[in-house]
Amino acid sequence: MAPSPLPLKEAQSTRSRRKVAPAAADGGDSGDKLEQLLLSSAICNGEDLGPFVRKAFTSSRPETLLHHLRHFARSKESEIEEVCKAHYQDFILAVDDLRSLLSDVDSLKSSLFDSNSRLQSVAGPLLSSLDSFVEAQNVSKNVDFALTSVISCIKLMELCLRANHHLSNGSFYMALKCVDSIENVFQVKTPSSTLKRMLERKIPEIRSHIERKISKEFGDWLVEIRVVSRNLGQLAIGQASAARQREEDLRMKQRQAEEQSRLSLRDCVYALEEEDDEGGLGGDENDGYSNGNNGLLGFDLTPLYRAYHIHQTLGLEDRFKQYYFENRRLQLTSDFQVSSMTPFLESHQTFFAQIAGFFIVEDRVLRTGGGLISKMEVENLWETAVSKMCSVLEDQFSRMQTANHLLLIKDYVSLLGVTLRRYGYPVDALLDVLSKHRDKYHELLLSDCRKQIAEALAADKFEQMLMKKEYEYSMNVLSFQIQTSDIIPAFPYVAPFSSTVPDCCRIVRSFIEDSVSFMSYGGQLDFYDVVKKYLDRLLSEVLDGALLKLISSSVHGVSQAMQVAANMAVLERACDFFFRHAAQLSGIPLRMAERGRRQFPLNKARDAAEEMLSGMLKTKVDGFMTLIENVNWMTDEPSQGGNEYVNEVIIYLETLVSTAQQILPPQVLKRVLQDVLSHISEKIVGALLGDSVKRFNVNAIIGIDVDIRLLESFADNLAPLFSEGDANQLKNALAESRQLINLLLSNHPENFLNPVIRERSYNTLDHRKLVTISEKLRDPSDRLFGTFGSRAARQNPKKKSLDALIKRLKDVS
């Protein structure tokens, strides 16, 4: 658009000012012109005028600057005036055009007014109809909205009713789903502010109510599961015990089969049937997530999983996990409490069963709980439990002074280990505690056996045991394999041993079984050497010592001594059974046990019993041997039927043998008789050597020879009882007296000086005794030895040989 023309007065004033400006500009000098040009250039270029202002004030010439600025302004006004003049004509033309248009505008305005009037008259009825339509449409929309709101409220109320129904029936999960639907779908969209306020208030209350109810159910389950865990643990351990018993029965059948095969009694075929004991405790691996129950074990995890699911739905999963773990940990800590009012022997089964049930439940929760508890948490609980159980066992074992009590607890703990090992829990620490108390248990067991053996020996009447029935024979003889024949005897049967033998055998067998029971299932597979070590101690220290004490203090009379010696022979057979029995129970082949057999562990008691019996018999024989004093040592005729003392001795020995052979084994009887005969031989030699016999003749020696022959005949008559070698050993017991008599009756006594002959025929003679006895020999009739003081008489060659022998022996001495 062209600029509007200036008013007349302003144009005239501008022209008057333009005439004054040149006159003022002509008065400046050249320096002022330069500054004016610089200032004009700076203003035209849009530069900063600050330096010009500072310079003006610095030079104290602000009026000059102001003059230059005014001059510049006047110069620009002239330019503006020139531009206005250039556009003034165009502006006048435009104004003329506008004035010509005014008449057209007026005519157009009147035309528009007429059109508007006609339009108003035509559109009036139409607008009234349109208003009615709009009003009707608004009413329809309001009705539709009201219907929609009513339908929504009806659905909301139905959902609320359904939620109330689920709440009243205890279906908390379904109630929560209804509440979630109400909150997510209807609460925001509900048109009723009253319902909305009600929902905002009630929904949190419902969730809180459900949380309280489910927490109460879970708390009740926590209380109930403790009782269930105890019963569960007892049932699980009971099933482990039953399984162990079945294994023992199978082993027993196998041992019987092996024993019969070893003895080749008859051809037998055994089929060891194994029962399936799996699944009784493990349950179904595909237990449902919702219940996790087990019909066999009788415990139900439904309340737990329900509470867990509800808390998941409430968004409180982590809090419930922590709550569950803390409560279970507190329950486990409570289970660790051992009552000081009740003996541990009475409460140990409940104590360990409670812990076993706890971890069986936790194993099920771990496998089917959907992450309710982690494997690490269960392992931490188990480590705590193992540590506490080990501590309790250490403390209780240290206080126990009865082996049977310790064994009962050990057996139950080993069953606990077997039970929980099936669920993957490591139990080595518990087994280590049991192994560590192995020595204490056996010491207590030895102490108990020492008392039992002492009582059994004290009750012994030293009488042969009478058995009236076959079951008594089986119980007292066959069960310990001490029979001498496989043929069942007729009843009533009088055994060669007294009641002490089966009593002691039962004690030893019980010791073996208790020892094996303690060592079994304790983590050590090969424990026969341990059992054998303590069995050796029981036999060699306890039983042998008790028998020695019995022999030294309670045995009076030959019959009692004979009974004890017979018992020792039977116990020697029983010891073989003890070691075989220990090997069988320990699960090792019998050949290995027999390969490692040692000497008879009761040898001290056996030797003492035989020595006591021999001593009593010697004492009895000594009573008869006193009759040797009645022998006529200078008799004119030799005795043909033996001297009185030897007849009495033989009668007594024959009576003794007839009684002893009923109870004493041949070897024992042989050793005793051998000792007695040796003693008789020593007494005969001692009589010839003693001061009571001053001299004797050949007839007396011949009589003694008859006596010895009678004793040798007695030994020969025992040949049916013994082997030929044993009978010869009995005769050899008389060797000293026989060799002495043979030498005295020999025609060449100087042969004694021949080492070969002496070793073959006179090896038992002592040359000092021989000198003393030979010097007492007198026989005027035969002049065998003559009168040593008579040099004039003609000497018999025998006497001369004997004198030479005596002289040589004296020189050697």
Automatic annotation (TrEMBL):
Compartments reported by the entry: Cytoplasm, Cytosol
Keyword Nucleus in record: no
Chief localization: cytoplasm
Cellular component aspect of the GO annotation: cytosol; exocyst; membrane
Keyword match Cytoplasm: yes
Domain Exocyst complex subunit EXOC6/Sec15 C-terminal: 430-776
Keywords: Cytoplasm, Exocytosis, Transport
Functional summary from the UniProt entry: Component of the exocyst complex involved in the docking of exocytic vesicles with fusion sites on the plasma membrane during regulated or polarized secretion. Involved in polarized cell growth and organ morphogenesis. During cytokinesis, involved in cell plate initiation, cell plate maturation and formation of new primary cell wall.
Family per similarity comment: Belongs to the SEC15 family.
Protein name: Exocyst complex component
